């Protein structure tokens, strides 16, 4: 009897244990199903949000590409910035309304049988189309110029002080992007320049960059044919780059120049600003290689002796700054022996000229 009771008890215990396990599994199973069901909708929602955001970005970028903006050839970082933000560099934008009658009158003064090629820089699409209507027989070339870096400022181009003695390092100007020279001939380079209403509009880095790029393109012309430069701006172009005697005509905000290309090439050999020493072209490789070199401060004094005191003060200032370079002054016969003795006492080495 005891064995039978033990066996019955054991069977009952086993049955109860199995029943409890099956109930536990039944309880856990719905829990997992519910958990899975709870996880699935958020994942699906995230995928829907990502898809919608991608569609909005693509739609916005296509709208930006169709907008009337300035055509610039952009490097990869600039292209990414423009694709994301949908705007050109504000430093290069000009809000000037173009008077096309002024441009028509100016181009008629070119005294040529017609322009074979016209390079257009910093004009938007509608303005480019207007150019094609004014000069329909010419080939219009959109010139692409990369923007300068944000950290390039007027102070970095024209610093107050550089290491002229080159004791620590050789001062070098920041690099400015250049235009790619087209394979086709260009007779006219037209540029729309920004001109802010601020008092220091002449110290606009973007404005300087556009003019230098146009000048370099003009100087790269090969052959004897003339190249004209036309600027659309309500502020006058760089006077020491484009002189008054080279100005053919000015019609309101339109300035048409016929530069001396040989003279322009010589000007472009100089540094962009005071950020770099203006050294002889053949001496640059020698100087930058670290070889010993000899340099001097030189000036000229002629026709009057009223600047003798200024030359003496300049010599003393150079010596007080610690420079050991030679001081050479060129004088003519109008400078008396009395004034020459004062210059020599200040440290100038006097050379007589005719």
TrEMBL record:
<keyword id="KW-0812">Transmembrane</keyword>
<protein>
    <submittedName>
        <fullName>Putative UDP-glucuronate:xylan alpha-glucuronosyltransferase 1 isoform X1</fullName>
        <ecNumber>2.4.1.-</ecNumber>
    </submittedName>
</protein>
<keyword id="KW-0328">Glycosyltransferase</keyword>
<keyword id="KW-0464">Manganese</keyword>
<feature type="transmembrane region" description="Helical">
    <location>
        <begin position="43"/>
        <end position="61"/>
    </location>
</feature>
<dbReference type="InterPro" id="IPR029044">
    <property type="entry name" value="Nucleotide-diphossugar_trans"/>
</dbReference>
<keyword id="KW-1133">Transmembrane helix</keyword>
<dbReference type="GO" id="GO:0016757">
    <property type="term" value="F:glycosyltransferase activity"/>
</dbReference>
<keyword id="KW-0472">Membrane</keyword>
<dbReference type="InterPro" id="IPR050587">
    <property type="entry name" value="GNT1/Glycosyltrans_8"/>
</dbReference>
<keyword id="KW-0808">Transferase</keyword>
């Amino acid at each position: 009897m005891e064995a039978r009771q033990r066996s019955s008890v054991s069977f009952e215990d086993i049955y109860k244990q199995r029943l409890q396990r099956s109930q536990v599994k039944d309880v856990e199973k719905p829990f997992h199903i519910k958990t899975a069901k709870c996880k699935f909708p958020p994942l699906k929602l995230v995928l829907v949000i990502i898809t919608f955001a991608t569609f909005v970005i693509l739609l916005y970028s296509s709208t930006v590409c169709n907008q009337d903006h300035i055509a610039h050839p952009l490097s990869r970082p600039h292209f990414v910035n423009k694709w994301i933000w949908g705007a050109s560099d504000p430093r290069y934008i000009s809000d000037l309304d173009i008077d096309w009658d002024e441009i028509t009158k100016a181009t008629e003064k070119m005294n040529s049988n017609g322009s074979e090629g016209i390079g257009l820089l910093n004009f938007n699409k509608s303005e480019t189309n207007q150019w094609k209507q004014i000069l329909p027989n010419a080939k219009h070339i959109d010139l692409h110029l990369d923007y300068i870096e944000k950290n390039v400022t007027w102070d970095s181009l024209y610093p107050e002080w550089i290491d002229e003695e080159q004791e620590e390092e050789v001062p070098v100007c920041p690099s400015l992007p250049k235009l790619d020279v087209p394979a086709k001939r260009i007779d006219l380079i037209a540029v729309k320049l920004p001109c802010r209403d601020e008092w220091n509009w002449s110290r606009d880095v973007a404005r300087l960059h556009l003019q230098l790029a146009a000048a370099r393109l003009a100087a790269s012309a090969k052959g004897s044919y003339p190249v004209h430069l036309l600027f659309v701006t309500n502020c006058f172009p760089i006077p020491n780059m484009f002189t008054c005697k080279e100005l053919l005509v000015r019609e309101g905000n339109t300035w048409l120049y016929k530069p001396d290309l040989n003279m322009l090439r010589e000007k472009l050999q100089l540094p962009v600003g005071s950020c770099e020493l203006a050294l002889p072209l053949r001496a640059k490789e020698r100087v930058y290689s670290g070889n010993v070199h000899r340099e001097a401060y030189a000036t000229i004094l002629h026709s009057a002796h009223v600047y003798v005191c200024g030359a003496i003060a300049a010599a003393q200032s150079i010596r007080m700054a610690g420079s050991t370079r030679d001081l050479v002054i060129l004088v003519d016969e109008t400078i008396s022996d009395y004034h020459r003795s004062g210059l020599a006492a200040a440290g100038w080495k006097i050379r007589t000229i005719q």
